[in-house]
Design a protein that fits this description.
alpha/beta; 23 strands
């Protein structure tokens, strides 16, 4: 069992930012040791009601602020995140058990999001004048309005980044936020709120509620004007049903069973390094991470041997420094779920090339980085999301075969293709049914490009984050049409035959001159 000591911070003060009864609490634990670090108030449905009421009251005034005034808050927030990176990294590690590099890289996502939308928001939110129905006599002006209160339901695997990567553009657009973090990881979200308020965000505009998922999650989804959910496919389906029943729009980022294709000309040294990071970063607890690797049969033995050797040398353990390459899983339950998948695969004939066992000597949630071979369709690890440090290797003969097997899943979130011939690799990537395709990168490259939309195919989600739509989805549009002089319909004294003739002639001219 690890004896590493958690950094000293005011964890209790952070827990105090969460709406709930301080007399009814559950412990928040340091994942490395299982020791409690704070008592988390439990939010009831009444607490959720009160949180929405506070946010709605604050949002009315916030929406009246000029866009530039709202954005000034995020200029200061950007600076505060960078100034407090050590504290944020500490808190993320305490709650998730991830390695320090991964915790640091998680927080970096937020300054990237803020920087992107600080540049794009003024243009996206200003009124846009469009051609009217009648050239020269009418105009149409598109006005963007905030939806009201956005419910953000965030997962435990990236508790700081995912809590705020959607909340930031929603707030910039003039909305308020009711945020529900996972019960295992509320302190990272609370720290983000603390920094936002220090940056000048009005009190009450963002409220955090936390408690039993089947109770608090539906309470948020039942009250929000837009629902942003990141999490598992089964829970996402329930959220979608709730939102659709109220005719409320939603955005869902769900799971993945993400493939990686190694082409025959791939640089194996670079590919092995990229694969190790794409599989085992964040201990495999990343929606975008690689769980299936398809390697051309001509290079399969060499890749397998180098990859297994690399994985067997990964430095695994607890620690609040950069020496560790892979940390623990988020909870004992998650560790047990990963172990159960591996044991089922082993019992049905899969071969464990390295890893394949829990490491309670390192801490209660540690599991070795694991590489499997000989995985077949009747094994859960073949088709179901593992969400842990486990990957299966498969040889293939032709590119068509590799593409077909990569696409043979109900998911479609992320994929990776490796090859020296970049054009050929991109052509393979274009055939993959995934919202993100990374060429010569394992997992993060496509998501990190904030200018482009980020979403999933099939059961991996609905809607996108990032890109222009990552902000515009939190708005509704009004088309204000203005007519200078009434010329629609037959004019006084004009026959209907003349009206029809003139209308046909006008439509012909509009098409000829491409005015419509």
């Amino acid at each position: 069992m690890s004896t590493v000591l958690a950094p000293v911070h005011d964890f209790g003060g952070l827990a105090g930012l969460i709406a709930g009864d301080p007399a009814e609490t559950v412990p928040v634990v340091e994942v490395f040791t299982g020791n409690p670090v704070a008592a988390l108030p439990q939010s009831s449905r009444a607490d959720v009601d009160a949180a929405f009421a506070r946010v709605r009251a604050a949002q009315v005034e916030w929406a009246r602020w000029p866009v530039r005034r709202r954005l000034a808050v995020f200029e200061r927030f950007h600076r505060l995140v960078l100034e407090n990176y050590r504290t944020i990294t500490d808190v993320i590690q305490v709650e998730t058990g991830k390695a320090r590099r991964m915790a640091f890289e998680e927080l970096c996502d937020i300054p990237m999001v803020v920087s992107h939308y600080l540049k794009r928001a003024p243009r996206l939110l200003r009124p846009i004048r469009h051609p009217g129905a009648i050239p020269g006599l009418s105009t149409s002006t598109e006005i963007r309005k905030p939806r009201g209160v956005v419910g953000v339901i965030a997962p435990w695997n990236f508790p700081f980044a995912i809590a705020y990567c959607d909340a930031i553009p929603a707030l910039m657009a003039g909305n308020g936020i009711v945020l529900k973090p996972d019960i295992h990881t509320p302190l990272s979200a609370a720290l983000g709120l603390k920094l936002l308020r220090e940056a000048g965000l009005p009190d009450g505009l963002v409220e955090i509620v936390c408690g039993d998922g089947p109770v608090v999650g539906p309470a948020v989804a039942e009250r929000a004007d837009f629902v942003m959910f990141t999490g598992s496919e089964p829970t996402g389906r329930l959220v979608a049903q709730q939102a659709a029943g109220r005719l409320v729009e939603m955005c869902l980022e769900l799971g993945g069973k993400n493939p990686m294709i190694v082409l025959p000309d791939a640089d194996l040294d670079l590919t092995v390094e990229g694969a190790a990071n794409g599989v085992f970063a964040n201990t495999g607890q990343l929606c975008l991470h690689v769980e299936r690797i398809y390697v051309h049969e001509s290079v399969y033995p060499a890749f397998r041997d180098r990859f297994v050797e690399k994985v067997s040398r990964l430095r695994v353990g607890p620690g609040y420094d950069f020496d560790v390459e892979m940390g623990g899983l988020v909870s004992v339950d998650q560790c047990e779920r990963v172990a159960a998948q591996v044991e089922q695969a082993r019992s049905r004939g899969a071969r464990v090339l390295t890893g394949g066992r829990a490491r309670p000597d390192l801490g209660p949630t540690f599991y070795e980085p694991t590489v499997l071979e000989g995985v077949t369709a009747e094994m859960d690890v073949c088709t179901e999301e593992t969400f842990g440090p486990v990957v299966a290797l498969y040889p293939y003969s032709t590119v068509d075969e590799a593409v077909a097997r990569a696409n043979d899943t109900r998911f479609g979130l992320s994929a990776s293709v490796w090859g020296r011939d970049v054009a050929a690799a991109r052509a393979v990537g274009a055939r993959l049914e995934a919202g993100h395709v990374n060429v010569n990168d394992g997992a993060a490259l496509a998501y990190a490009g904030k200018s482009a939309p980020s979403g999933g195919f099939k059961a991996s989600g609905i809607g996108v984050r990032n890109g222009d739509q990552g902000l515009l989805k939190f708005t509704e549009s009004t088309n204000v049409a203005t007519l200078k002089r009434q010329v629609l319909g037959p004019q006084p004294g004009q026959s209907y035959e003349d009206y029809v003739t003139r209308t046909i002639r006008t439509l012909t001219l509009l098409r000829r001159f491409r005015l419509r």
